[in-house]
Inverse folding.
């Protein structure tokens, strides 16, 4: 992923922010790491002993959204290959997913939250010209 595509994906993700939040600006750092670092971060911060595709570290939401997104390149590439997805499209999806997490969306606490977050992802990705990543 190039910087322009990364900024574009995050910008579209931020556009999904609920109007009740007074967002004035956003500072999001994106790091791309290898499997070893991805696993170490996931172990340290989530107590899960494997590298995951994207980690979101959200620090503040308003008035300035502050967050770090960490993409694990080998996991991203493996998932794209296994799922028959375009690598760039999968990377953009993960950036949008991580951005939504930074904005307070979650998919792990309830099925309703997961469906709402997934629907937002699909809508945002559609606006970016990327097909629904959840359709088989």
């Amino acid at each position: 992923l190039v910087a322009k595509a990364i900024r574009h994906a995050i910008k579209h993700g931020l556009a999904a922010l609920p109007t009740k939040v007074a967002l004035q600006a956003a500072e999001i750092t994106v790091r791309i790491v290898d499997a070893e670092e991805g696993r170490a971060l996931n172990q340290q911060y989530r107590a899960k002993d494997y590298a995951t595709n994207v980690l979101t570290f959200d620090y503040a939401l308003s008035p300035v959204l502050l967050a770090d997104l960490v993409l694990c390149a080998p996991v991203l590439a493996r998932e794209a290959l296994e799922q028959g997805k375009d690598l760039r499209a999968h990377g953009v999806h993960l950036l949008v997913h991580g951005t939504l997490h930074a904005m307070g969306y979650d998919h792990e606490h309830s099925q309703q939250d997961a469906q709402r977050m997934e629907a937002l992802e699909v809508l945002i990705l559609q606006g970016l010209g990327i097909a629904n990543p959840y359709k088989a």
Summary: Residues 111-127 form the longest helix (17 residues). Strands lie at 25-33, 54-60, 64-72. The mean pLDDT is 90. The first strand starts at residue 25 and ends at 33.
